[in-house]
Structure formats: C-alpha cells, structure tokens
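Dear colleague,

Thank you for sharing your sequence with our group. We've completed the structure prediction you requested, and as agreed, I am returning the results in plain text so they can be pasted directly into your records. Please verify that the sequence below matches your submission; if there's any discrepancy, let me know and we will rerun it promptly.
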Amino acid sequence: MKVRPREEVFSLIQAHLADELDLEPDAIGEATRFREDLEADSLDLYTLVQELEDTYGVSMSDEQAAKILTVGQAVDFVLASMGERAHDGSG
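Please find the predicted structure tokens below.
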C-alpha cells in the first residue's frame, strides 16, 4: 500500500518534533503551532528545517521558515517544493 506524500511528510515532521521536544507524537497535529503549542525555540525549528532539507532536498530560506507557523504549513511547503521539482521530468 503506497503512502500518500502528505502523510509521509507529516509523519516525518511529527516524529522529528516528538523526538526533538520529548513529546508524544499524538500530541502533534497539522494545526499544531511550533512556538505557541510546542514551545519550540529557534534552534528546534532550525534542526527541523535541516531535516526537511536533507530528507526531501528542499531549500528553505530564513524568510520562508519565519512564515511557517504550524506543522501543516511545513508539510505544505515541502509538498509545494517537491511539486516544483517534479516538473523537471525526473519525477
């Protein structure tokens, strides 16, 4: 059974945050806010960005990262970036 890309990206982010912040994965949903709900600091968010860049080959500027406030927005960003790459004929 093929995993849908959104679920795969969400699962990676959820697992990373749960590990990084010592939380239960079930406590993290798409509407979860990094700072307000998870109390993630800038270093936590930086390591998440690095993880996404390494895993999915996406590139996120500091300005883009600053606009991503929820887990769902991070998933959207990764999928949009992957979608742009898919149009070059290699996907």
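Summary note from our side: Helices lie at 5-21, 42-56, 62-67, 71-86.

Kind regards,
the structure core
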